[in-house]
Amino acid sequence: MFVVGSDHGGLELKQAICELLQQRNLPCADYGTNDSDSVDYPDLGAKVAQAVSDGTAESGVLVCGTGIGMSIIANKYPGVRAALVHDEFTAQMAREHNNANILILGGRIVSVEQGVKLVEIWLDSQFEGGRHQNRLDKIAAAEQRLQKQ
Ligand code: RB5
User: 64 CA distance to ligand 1 centroid (A)?
Assistant: First the structure.
């Protein structure tokens, strides 16, 4: 299952991403926000990141104005590899090299059309494994060490 969330700065793009996932018959839970009232991005980012971290969801998409705030909060959750992408190349690399399980976009950085395209690229790309898996293993090991401190 996918989980998606945004603050007010990412609402329009988040709604378009939900439509994309529905068109592709990918089960998706929308964790909000659902109107243009100002909300705090850590609240929405935490909900989505928690769901991916604890296995409720396989993957997620988060959108705020720049994507920066969502990146900061999401990457605090164990097992989350959240990637902020702005273009086709970073969307592709986020899967091929980083196997990102949360894709993050800036709703005030990319257009709705471009943002949807970047999600499609991430969905359609394949993790390359190999040396990239070794690097992800090092991230997981660092996370384990930090949790014990
Ligand atoms: C909200 O105004 C804005 O700060 C937020 O959407 C995001 O860009 C934070 O990183």
Answer: 6
- pLDDT, residue 65, reads 98
- Nearest residue by C-alpha to atom 10 in ligand 1: 69
Q: pLDDT by residue (tens digit) across 122-137?
A: 999 999 999 999 999 9
Please give the domain boundaries of the chain with CATH numbers for all domains: 2-148 (3.40.1400.10)
Protein residue with least CA distance to atom 7, ligand 1: 65
Which atom from ligand 1 is nearest to the alpha carbon of 66?
8
Measure the CA–CA gap between 96 and 120, rounded to whole angstroms: 14
By annotation, the residues acting in catalysis are: 64, 97
Model pTM above 0.85: yes
Q: Helices 88-96 & 112-124, crossing angle to 10 degrees?
A: 30
